[in-house]
Write a structure and sequence with these properties.
The chain is α+β, with helices and mostly antiparallel strands. The protein contains nine helices and five strands; from the N terminus they run ααββββααβααααα. The chain has two domains: 165 residues, 2-Layer Sandwich (Nonspecific Lipid-transfer Protein, Chain A), CATH 3.30.1050.10; 40 residues. The chain is elongated, with a radius of gyration of 23 Å. The protein starts with a helix and ends with a helix. About 3% of the residues have low confidence.
């Protein structure tokens, strides 16, 4: 299926402007994004063949374009129908994990970026409808909304499910039982440190009292 490069470029400009407005209204978000520089996220639609790139700048801004020569940090790819299923799902995270969407590259960065973007209140609907009309614009707005999971409830679900998916698929963590044992050991160590700190404080107080009495 053919697509008009001018329309794709227009969508990229609209998306970039919508992100810029949302970032400007969210104190601290630009600093969080700046820490991710120079992360580059590619969203690759395989049918029709359309690529969109989100590039994090050093000042925390996000550039959106339809062409890049550099290798992306992380890539989300799939057909238009697979992306639309994510857009229309009541649980976008579950649809992303269980659908025909492929994630490659540094998936830990993707999780961090999703956490930052999910806290933004991005108005995708109005500018995309103005550019593409009510039907296509609404569908594309739903897709962007699904990918960023802007609502708090969706964010909590996405964070949990994406974390489990990324850690499992990326083999970035040991099995669950080993992880639970490790976390339990960490909790025990923290408790012992807290107790030792309390004992040291009591000893210091006694030393101070004795030093004061001997003067």
């Amino acid at each position: 299926m053919q697509h008009d490069p001018a329309v794709i470029a227009g969508v990229c400009l609209v998306a970039e402007a919508a992100l810029a407005r949302a970032i400007a209204l969210s104190p601290g978000t630009a600093q969080q994004l700046a820490q991710l520089h120079p992360v580059e996220l590619a969203i690759a639609c395989t049918n029709p063949a359309i690529d969109v790139f989100l590039v994090i700048n050093g000042d925390g801004a996000i550039n959106v374009s339809s062409y890049r020569e550099t290798e992306p940090t992380v890539c989300i790819s799939g057909s238009s129908s697979a992306f639309l299923k994510v857009a229309s799902a009541s649980d976008p995270a579950a649809a992303l994990i269980n659908g025909n969407i492929k994630i490659t590259g540094d998936t830990a960065v993707l999780m961090t970026l999703q956490n930052v973007l999910s806290d933004l209140n991005i108005d995708w609907e109005a500018p995309l409808v103005d550019l593409l009309g009510p039907i296509v614009g609404h569908q594309l707005a739903n897709l962007f909304q699904g990918l960023t999971t802007a609502s708090k409830v969706a964010h909590q679900s996405a964070r949990r499910q994406l974390s489990e998916f990324i850690l499992e698929e990326g083999r970035l963590s040991p099995p669950r039982a080993e992880l639970d044992d490790f976390l339990g050991s960490v909790d025990d160590m923290v408790l012992r440190v807290d107790r030792a700190e309390s004992r040291l404080k009591r000893l210091k107080n006694r030393v101070d009292i004795l030093s004061g009495a001997s003067v």
